[in-house]
Model the fold of this input.
Amino acid sequence: MTQPLDICIELKNSVEQGEPERSKSLAEKALQVLDSISIIKECLIPAMNEVGEKFSRLEIFLPEVMMAAEAFESAIKVVEPKITGEQKKALTMGKVVIATIQGDIHDLGKNIVAMMLKAAGFEVYDLGRDVPPDVILKKAVEVDADIIAVSALMSTSLPYVKDLVRLLVERGLRSKFIVMVGGGAVTREWAREIGADGYGENFEEAVKAAIELINSRKNA
Done:
């Protein structure tokens, strides 16, 4: 009989090695001996944490991170339907609406950040690329998000990021949402200038900032 620890180790390794089909199969197998919350907390999240650590130590690079993220996603799709509403609420760090801002179709970095936020325990609503500020804001209000995260790789799209912040202020919603920005066209200084709450130069910094900001708000 398969032991819970053994299957968890196998699943963790398959995610780290970027094997989506094997990860899906192992997740199905894990559900026979472990509950869904245990699989997420003890197998999947530790796997992605290890991927992040290896990336920060330059032991792996972006293609390997993407493969691991794909494997994580294939496993989580098997496990998530088994989670009850109350369990999901207790497990969730917070809700994030994320998008590449209007005027920009680059989404690789945004996709990685979205996946790593999900691995960190956030409920993520990914709106895709070239998304107008009012659409982002509408979704954030609809799902009662904690964080709005936008990416901009092209400098020509930066005015739309400013428009998003302006819309929040005009509608009296600025204090309701944590605003995070990132992408090749965004600098830390510019993020401060427009009044963003957080900035991520890469996915690792973005996830760390999101966790710190959400914890700070919860403890305020």
